[in-house]
């Protein structure tokens, strides 16, 4: 085996170790936060823009930008019965506010008139990157 082949094997071993370490840091199960109560049948539903505005009231305490403009909100699904399902992500699985922000998001949306049970599910795919941020958020962080 050539020296280059040995080096490639060592690099592959280091990469495998790094991937194992990262997997160990990731949450063992997905995190879901829930808030709110079922709406009575026939209730008027909150407009989606109100849901987005409610999400804009939630910010990471270390970042002066709301979770919507940070690009953490991947999907908002409003059901016919007023229930709302939200997929959100965070910057990394080891984010110190992983257990706080999803519940704050669920509580903010559940406080709206016209929303039923709100479920916020933390997802890790696709991974968050700064390009998911709004232009306003990028300007705040001076990423331009």
Structural write-up:
- Helix content is 33%, strand content 14%.
- It is built from four helices and four strands; from the N terminus they run H-E-H-E-E-H-E-H.
- The chain has a four-stranded mixed β-sheet.
- The chain is globular.
Low-confidence stretches: 5-10, 22-29
Number of helices: 4
Assess the beta-strand content as a share of residues: 5-15%
Q: SSE order, as H and E?
A: HEHEEHEH
In the sheet with the most strands, the strands line up as 1-4-3-2
Give the overall shape: globular
Radius of gyration: 20 Å
User: The biggest beta sheet, please?
Assistant: 4 strands, mixed
* Mean pLDDT across residues: 84
How many extended strands?
Answer: 4
Measured between the Cα atoms of the first and last residue, the distance is: 48 Å
Class inferred from helices and paired strands: alpha+beta
Question: What portion of residues is helical?
Answer: 25-40%
Short characterization:
With 144 residues, this protein is α+β, with helices and mostly antiparallel strands.
């Amino acid at each position: 085996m050539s020296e280059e082949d040995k080096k490639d094997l060592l690099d592959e071993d280091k990469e495998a170790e790094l991937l194992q370490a990262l997997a160990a840091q990731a949450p063992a199960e997905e995190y879901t936060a829930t808030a709110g109560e079922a709406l009575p049948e026939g209730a008027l539903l909150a407009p989606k823009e109100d849901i987005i505005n409610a999400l804009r009231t939630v910010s990471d305490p270390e970042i002066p930008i709301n979770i919507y403009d940070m690009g953490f909100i991947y999907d908002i699904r409003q059901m016919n019965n007023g229930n709302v399902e939200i997929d959100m992500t965070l910057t990394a699985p080891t984010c110190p506010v992983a257990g706080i922000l999803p519940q704050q998001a669920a509580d903010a949306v559940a406080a709206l008139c016209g929303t039923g049970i709100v479920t916020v599910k933390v997802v890790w795919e696709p991974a968050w990157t700064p390009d998911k941020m709004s232009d306003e958020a990028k300007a705040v962080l001076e990423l331009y």
